[in-house]
Fold this sequence. Notes:
- The chain is an alpha/beta fold.
- The protein folds into 2 domains: 1-77 and 162-246, Rossmann fold, CATH 3.40.50; 89-160, no CATH class.
- 35% of the residues lie in helices and 24% in strands.
- The protein has a 6-stranded mixed sheet, sandwiched between helices. A 4-stranded antiparallel sheet has the order 2-1-4-5, covered by helices on one side.
- Helix 3 crosses helix 4, helix 3 (93-104) runs parallel beside helix 5 (145-158) and helix 5 packs parallel to helix 6 (175-190).
- The longest helix is centred in the C-terminal third of the chain and has 16 residues, at 175-190.
- It is globular, with a radius of gyration of 18 Å.
- The protein starts with a strand and ends in a 7-residue tail after the last helix.
- The structure holds adenosine-5'-triphosphate.
- Adenosine-5'-triphosphate (ATP) binds at residues 11, 16, 34, 36-42.
Amino acid sequence: MLQIDQLKKSFDxxxxxxxxxxxxxxxxxxxxIGPNGAGKSTLFNLITGHLTADSGSIRFQDTDITKxxxxxxxxxxxxxxxxxxxxxxxxxxxENIQTAVLARHRLERKLFKPAKRLLREETLEVLASFxxxxxxxxxxxxxxxxxxxxxxxxxxxxxxPKLLLLDEPTAGMSPDETQKIVHLIKRLSxxxxxxxxxxxxxxxxxxxxxxxxxxxxxxxxxxQGLPEDIRNDxxxxxxxxxxxxVC
Length: 247
Ligand SMILES: Nc1ncnc2c1ncn2[C@@H]1O[C@H](COP(=O)(O)OP(=O)(O)OP(=O)(O)O)[C@@H](O)[C@H]1O
């Protein structure tokens, strides 16, 4: 579904992505892991068009998206939730979801008065599937951190993406909130067949949910494969030595 080849990106001479290769098969949960500064967020920003690669290619469903804008990439079918929660805090929960649903129907310009009536049923369905109906008239700023994250993922799914990118979805969460996100990832993958690409520092979570893992180290793909192979890979163990000792 997503194919990345020989990707490179430098910042003022520093190669943040030196040579990244990744293949994401349809229907799978794929995790990108690596020590701090390995280039995970940079890779995500390249995939979603928030950064432009110096060289290499990114193909999504046989379309070359390497030089596309974030708007074009979103309309191609790639949705994203960010490391820092990215919602409209001063809008209600319902209005946030409605914004995403309107955008999918290319009705963004009708965002204000008439929008209240537009696509309300579809918006309520999205809210229901994420257990957010009871919060629908609350301002987003009043939700707990965990519920704000669920809302952000629901917004990303409002555009009905085929591939969902989750950038450290459990960062800063309590164990209970983390479990809620784990269940959500499994439900979206197993019940709805969504393809998911995530980065995450919590390697227990990664080994729990991912069918495939890519390991980035200093901007290079040093390993890619099944979780059990990654766990036993010597280059991965070396990359993590002195870091978390997780593998
Ligand atoms: N806009 C930028 N300008 C300059 N350097 C950058 C920029 N973005 C990232 N970098 C550098 O590129 C490298 C990779 O950063 P990146 O944020 O992609 O790593 P990461 O694997 O996501 O790290 P973390 O796990 O800590 O979030 C780092 O050395 C970072 O300082």
